Amino acid sequence: MLNQYLRKYGIRPALFDKFPNEELGISVVIPASNEMDIHQSLSALYNCRRPDCAVEVVVIINASETDSEEVVAQNRKTYQACKIWEDHSDSAFRVLVYMENDMPKKHAGVGLARKIGMDETVRRFEMIGNKNGVIACFDADSQCEPNYLEEIYAHFRLNPNTPGCSIQFKHPTFGTEFSSKTYLGITYYELHLRYYNQALRATGFPHAFHTVGSSMAVRCQAYQKQGGMNRRQAGEDFYFLHKIIGLGNFTELNTTCVYPSPRPSNRVPFGTGKAINDYLEAPSKIYYSYNLSAFKYLKIFFQNIPEFYLNTPSLVTMGGVIPYVMIDFLNAYFFDERMAEIKRNSSGFSSFQKRFYRWFNAFMVLKFVHFVRDNAHPNVNVERAAFDLLREMNYEKIDEVRSLSDLLEVYRELDRQGKPISASFK
Questions:
Q1: 0.90 exceeded by the pTM?
Q2: Is residue 33's pLDDT more than 90?
Q3: Segments in 15-169 forming alpha helices (H)
């Protein structure tokens, strides 16, 4: 019998006949399309130290109805490779594979594939009555540390109130599998991601977390409560995780690590693969990121939340307090009306603040940052932006940062520490 979530949001019938192990505690979902060697990722998971629960790996091989015969043929090869894993796995570590090569063009992509797999894990956790089972997202070209599974299991046991977590990730920045330009491009791109995350944390924004699709995990119950995965063809991880983050008590798992591939791709309109592909097409182009001024303006804005609650000043009176570029932005979103509405429905400041950030959420933050980029402060060299933030933080070892790799390692460590940072933003 289908539960309420699957009746409302489920889009496929049961995919597998095998009944799950009664001790199933972690299900790893992998979308796969035109993958040349999924064996490496499955081997990385298989070679992990085993947690105190059973594990299932659900592989969703997918293609659009408009994809080429070459893609479909490769998917069939991937399916056969996964079937070997499925036929030789046991109930303590089981691989399950499903293939759909004719997804409707409108929705075909990583979001739909993740949703199909994650919905199936809901069905399988419900079969054994485990609402707290953990759904982890991985990619068909990713690797992980040997403690990946046991650390996920331990993290959710040690944090019983967390609905989900982002998992530490590091793209490979050197090696022989890809060109030197690819490794340089991924170094720039990862620095951009980490600079954005740290700059946002410095503003006081409470929901600043990485949202990388191959490096996240959620409880089955939280997944259902927030309506499950979306069907976006790119950015599905960002939109999905911020629904989970909004539940509160979201955490970071930094005692293990996922290694996503830096390979270029044209399959999605934005994201890692697209960024690397664009860089390879114009490697002489400077890699840009957002001007630190946008985050300075956000910090001023967030510091005025108590004023919005106590006095509800109209936006027209805030000139000189809030930067004018932010006033222009807020006017387009009916700021005065929104503050009045939020205050009417708040029982106190804590309630007001929660509702405020529910409105001015990560999507609004990104819209504002883009508004500043387009109307006031153009993007700057990502290295310059990253150094500017370190100076604002009074980072003591800044003179020891002598290369792009050094700079990325500093930001990786800042993320790994997982602490709010302080920046003067003068």
A1: yes
A2: yes
A3: 39-46, 69-88, 110-127, 148-158
Q: Where are the domains of the chain?
A: 4-11+24-285, 289-417
Q: Is 52 buried (19+), middle (13-18) or exposed (0-12) by CB count in 10 A?
A: exposed
Q: How many CB atoms lie within 10 A of CB 120?
A: 25
In angstroms, the CA 394 to CA 336 distance is 36
- Closest CA relative to residue 250, chosen from 214, 219, 204: 219
Residue 396 exposed, middle or buried by CB count within 10 Å (0-12, 13-18, 19+): exposed
Instruction: Pull the structure tokens for residue 132.
Output: 């707290």
d(CA 25, CA 131): 10
CATH number belonging to domain 4-11+24-285: 3.90.550.10
- Rounded to whole angstroms, the Cα distance separating 420 from 121 reads 34
Q: Which letter, b or e, does each residue of 80-118 get, where b requires 16 or more Cβ atoms within 10 Å of its Cβ?
A: ebbeebbeebeeebbbbbbbbbebeeebbbbbbbbbbbb
Residues 103-112: tens digit of each pLDDT: 998 888 999 9
Do 33 and 62 meet the contact criterion of CB atoms below 8 Å apart?
A: yes
